[in-house]
Amino acid sequence: VRLGFVGIGAIASHHLGVLGLHPDVEVSAVCDADAGRAQEVAARIGARAHTDWERLLDRERLDAVVICTPPMAHAAPAIAALQRGIPVYLEKPLARAIGDGEAIVAAWRRTGTICAVGYQWRSLDILDRARTELAGAVPGMLISRSIGPTEPGRGDARRMSADGSWFIDPSLSGGILFELGSHDIDLQVALAGRAASVHAVSASGLLALAGTSAPSGLDDAVGVIVRYAAGAIGAILVAWTDAQDPPVYSLDLMAVDVALQLDLDPGFRLRGRSHGGRVDVTAAADPRVSTISRFLDAVRTGRQDGVPCSPGDALDTLHVALAAEEAIATGQPVAVSQPAL
Ligand SMILES: NC(=O)c1ccc[n+]([C@@H]2O[C@H](COP(=O)([O-])OP(=O)(O)OC[C@H]3O[C@@H](n4cnc5c(N)ncnc54)[C@H](O)[C@@H]3O)[C@@H](O)[C@H]2O)c1
After folding, report:
1. pLDDT of 206-251, one tens digit each?
2. Phi and psi at residue 67, in whole multiples of 5°?
3. Which candidate, 191, 169, 164, 168, places its Cα nearest to that of 264?
4. Which residues does ligand 1 sit against, CB inside 6 Å?
5. Pairing, β 26-31 against β 48-50
6. Fewer CB atoms near the end CB (10 Å): N or C, the chain?
7. Of all atoms in ligand 1, which is nearest to the CA of residue 166?
């Protein structure tokens, strides 16, 4: 499988390491707007370097492309690749803006080209086990906690200056609600279905941002309450801090006769009680590994249904994240729009 990369920063470096587990995969070309970075990575892995993704898509003979640009720069390369019939692994969130997200979904549906979105927790085998334990029952409550840093490879907290990363501008990134919390939203939506409405609050300067000149709108604590259409209540609590070691990412899942805790990152384990019996299972694979394996399988077989998180799934998640952002800004509950597509 000949792969190209668009955007080769922190998460792309991680994916490149995982791809080393696949001897039949060759990363033949990489593109980054930062020419020095493109050349350095290309030289290291024996690939060709580009600074313009259109050239990469037109000049390289690729079987698939992995897009790891920042959220506001997802739509253009993703749509261009899908239109050329090149399967896409697109990092999460689907997009920063709803128009971009809808355009990606429309291109994916129109072209029928395989596309996976990088919400890797959806590729966990223990998520299927949690669904089995629910046995079709509607969850009553879901409680997600994300307590930890943002992407360590990016060094957001150190770069709180004029030349800071795209992450520190919430109009580009969506802040921790999109960077961290959207993983939790996505996991909850995967288990509880469509969201109906959202309440949300946030705070800034109390945790990782204490003592920094954080731009307005960048938060280090976010709380979201979701009411799902099927009735469940979801709570998502995100704390951006370097003090929590190791970080805590978890989901408590409650339904009739079911009380399970899903430990996420660095250990992936499902435990608790279900219908009178004990549950204690560890995931067979790290989801950052299985998300890539499952995408490569989909590319090899041409089957979209093997992809754990499709653009349509990620659009549902984007609607919830945007509703939460609006709820924070207005202090009011916000109805979650149903995707128009
Ligand atoms: N799934 C996960 O757990 C996870 C973890 C971290 C980041 N991410 C996501 O991955 C994406 C990238 O994040 P990151 O941490 O790697 O950021 P990063 O800043 O480390 O890397 C982004 C790279 O994209 C390049 N770039 C920006 N615009 C470009 C363009 N138009 N064309 C080509 N290159 C361009 C930048 O120069 C940079 O090298 C984001 O959407 C982020 O939310 C996902």
Report:
1. 999 998 888 888 999 999 999 999 999 999 999 999 899 999 999 9
2. -105, 115
3. 191
4. 6-12, 31-34, 37, 53, 68-71, 73, 91-92, 118, 120, 151, 154, 165-166, 179
5. parallel
6. C
7. 19
Of 65, 68, 119, 179, the residue with max ligand 1 atoms within 8 A of its CB, to mutate for a pocket test, comes to: 68
**Residues 162, 165, 167, 168: what is their CA dihedral angle, to the nearest 10 degrees?**
-20
Tell me the whole-structure pTM to 2 decimals: 0.97
What average pLDDT does the structure give for the chain?
Answer: 95
Tell me the DSSP string of 19-82: HTT-TT-EEEEEE-SSHHHHHHHHHHHT-EEES-HHHHHHHS--SEEEE-S-GGGSHHHHHHHH
**Ligand 1 mean position, distance from CA 95 (Å):** 12
The answer to whether residues 94 and 75 touch, using CB atoms and an 8 Å cutoff, is no
In tens, the pLDDT along 170-196 reads: 999 999 999 999 999 999 999 999 999
Q: Which residue has the tokens 């992936």?
A: 268
Looking from the CA of residue 154, the nearest atom of ligand 1 is: 20
User: How many residues does the structure list for the chain?
Assistant: 341
